[in-house]
Amino acid sequence: MLTRSPAARKVTAALRMLAALVLAGGIYTLISPSAQATAPLSAAAQEGKALYDTSCISCHGNNAQGVEGRGPSLLGVGSAAVEFQVETGRMPAARQEAQIERKQPLFDDAEARQLGAYIQELGGGPEIPFAGQTAPAGDIANGGKLFRVNCSSCHAFSGGGGALSSGKYAPTLELSTDRQLYAAMLTGPQNMPVFGDNQLTPEEKYDIISYVQNLKSDVDPGGWGLGRFGPVTEGLAIFLFGMVALAFAALWIAGKS
Amino acid sequence: MRKRKFNVKEIPAKTAGEIDDRFQVATPLRGILNKVFPDHWTFLLGEIALFSFIILLLTGTFLALFFDPSMQEVNYQGSYLPLRDVHMSRAYETSLNLSFDVRGGLIMRQMHHWAALLFMAAIVIHMARIFFTGAFRKPRELNWIIGMLMFWLGFTEGFAGYSLPDDALSGTGLRIASAIMLSIPVIGSWVTASLFGGEFPGEIILSRLYILHVFLLPLILLTLITVHVGLVIVQKHTQWAGPGRTNHNVVGERWFPRYVIKQGGFFMVVFGLIALMGGLFQINPIWLFGPYEAAVVSAGSQPDWYVMFLDGSTRLMPAWEIRIWGYTIPPLFWPTVVLPGILSTVPMLYPFIEARLTKDKGHHNLLQRPRDMPERTGLGAAGIAFYLVLAFSGGNDIIADKFDISLNAMTWAGRIGLLIVPPIAYYLARRISLGLQQHDREVLAHGVETGIIKLLPNGQYVEVHQPLAPVDDHGHGELPYVGWTVPKKMNRLGALGPALRGFFKPIEEPVKPRSNGAKPAEISEKEKEKV
Q: Region Disordered: what ranges (chain B) (predicted)?
C-alpha cells in the first residue's frame, strides 16, 4: 500500500476540491437561465411589444409581470390566452367586474397574434396548434357527446350560454371562431375551467369545435327556434301568441257582455 | 208504368222518423239540441281546453304508431348526422325517427306538444274565469273540484309525456322527479324503488310512464271531461246578471243550430292555431339535447311552463335540512311535496271555505262581477301573483343571463317577492274593485256625464249629468246597485246616436251628433229597462 506525506495529501484534497468547484460552477453556468442575457425577440414579438407597451402595460405591468390589484402577470399564460382575450375584445378591459364581456375588438387578428407572440416569447405557455383560421375537421357526433358532457352544463345544449353565480355567466358561442373555441378550452378564460390536452386531446377539441360550428349553422327543422332557450320561451309563446290569438277568436265568435 | 213519387225534401224528416221509431231519441235529443248557451267570450275558454284535448288524442295516436318506449340500448343510424353512431335508448331513437324519418312526424310531434301547452294554459285561464266570477258557488262545487283534478291530471300527463322521448332534458326532469320522491321522509326510498323498479333510472320506467301517458291518464281525463261537461248540461250554464236574467232562467242561444256552428268553427280555429304553431315554431328540439346520460345536465334545463312553478319553488327554497328522530327531511321536501300538496287540496275546498266565511248557502246561477267581490278578487290576484313569482323563478337563470342580472339577485328577488308581491296584489286588486264599484254607484246616483258644461250665474261651471232613472228630491237616481253593467257613456243610452258596437269594426255606422246645444234626449222606456 502506498503511503503519502501529509503535505501531499493536502495538495490532492485541494485539487479535488478545485475540480469539484469547477464542475459545479460549469454545470450551473450551462443550465441556469441568465438574468441578463435576453434572447432577441422575433419581429412579430417586437411588434407585439410595441402594442403591449401602449395598451396593456398599465395593468399588466412592465415585462408582463403584473400590477398588484390591477392585472395579473401574463408570464406563462401563452399566446393562446392572449389571442383569445384580445380577439374577442375582452382585453383591453373597460373595468373590473364579475366578468369581462365580449365586445368589439380593439386590435385586429394580426395584431392579436403579435401580442400573443410577445407574451409567448416572454414566458411560454399554451399555444393554438393550428395556424389557419379553421381547425382541422373533427367527428361531429363524437364532438356532440363530449360537448354534452363537458360544455352544456354552462353553455347550454344550444351553445347559447347560461347564468353562473353572482353575475358571472357562460357566454354564448354564437360569435366564437374555431381558434377562439380552441383557445378557450385550452386556457380556461375567466370562469371557464381549463380543458388541458390530458383531459380533451387536441383531436377531441377538434371534434367539439366541429360540433359547435355545425350546431350554429344547422337550420332549425321545426321552424323558428324561439332562441333555442327551451321551455321558458315555449311557455311565453303559448300565452303571448296562442292564448292571446284564441282570446281574440273567442271575442270574434261570442259577445262581450 | 207509374212513376214512383220521390220527394227529396222529405228525406231528412223521414230518416229522422225511422230512427226515432227504433231508438226513441226525439225527446232526449230535443232537450240537448235546445240547450241554451249564454253568449260571452269568456265562456269559450274551457272549450279551448276541450278542443286541445281532442287534438292531443288525434296527434298522440299518430305518434304512438311510431314510438317505442323501450330502454334497450341501440346505435343510432338514422338521418340526423350529428347523432350518428351514438348509443341511445330505443325510445330516443324512435323519437328522433319520428322527427326526421317519418313523413309528417315532426309537425305531429310539435302540434302534440303545443296542444299540451295550450291545454294546460286554457285550463288555468278558464279556472281563473270561474274563480273571479264566482261560478264555483253552490251548486257547482263538484265541477270546480273536477276541474282542479283535471289540472293536476294534465300536469302529470304532461310530465309523463315530457319524460318519454328519453332525451337529456327529459332524463334530467325524471331525475328531479325521483329526487322529489326520495325526499319524502320514511317512505321515499320505497316509493322510488317501486316506481323505477330499483335504482334510477332502471329499465322499466319508460314503459310505465307510457301506459300512464297513452292509456290510464287520458282515460281518466276523458271520463272527467265527460262528467264535467255533463254537469254543465244538467246544472245549466251560469250567466252574467243583467236585464231579464234571473237565477231561474238562462238567456242565450240554442245549442242547435247556431251555437253548434259557432263551436265547430271555434274548434277549427283552435286546430288551425295549433297547426300553425306546430309548423312555424320549433318546440322541444330533442335532437339538440342528445340522449339522456346521468352526467349530462344542460344549463337552462326547465320543465314545461305548468311545472315551472315547482322548479321555481325549489330554486327559492333555502337549504334548510332537518334531522329528526334519525330521519332526514331534505329541503327539497318542502317546495316540491308539501307546497303542491297544499296547492292541490286547499283550492279544491275553496267553494266551501268561502260559503262558510260569507255565510252564503244559496243556490247561484248568476255570476258576480269581480268588482262586486273585492275580497275574492284580491285573493285571486294574490294567488296569481304567488304562482307567477314561482313560475318566473323557475326560469330565473334564463332571465338572469339574457337581461344581465346576477342569478343570486334573481333568487333573492324571488324569495322576497314571494312574500311581498301577493299581499301587494291583494291590496291593489281589492282597491281597484272597490273603486270600480264606487264609480258604478256614483253613476247610478248622479247620472252619466254628458260632456256639457254649464256656466252658472255666479260664475261656477258644472257638468250636466244625465240621470239613468227618475230622481228623488235631492236629485239622486233611485236605481239600486245590483251588480249589473252600468252604462257610462251617453251613446250607450242612445242619446248621442247608436253606440259603436263590435270588437274588430263597428257593426253600425256612427251617426252624426245632433245639432249643438240640444239637450240630451230623454231615455226611452226600453233603455230604462236595459239599465
A: 509-531
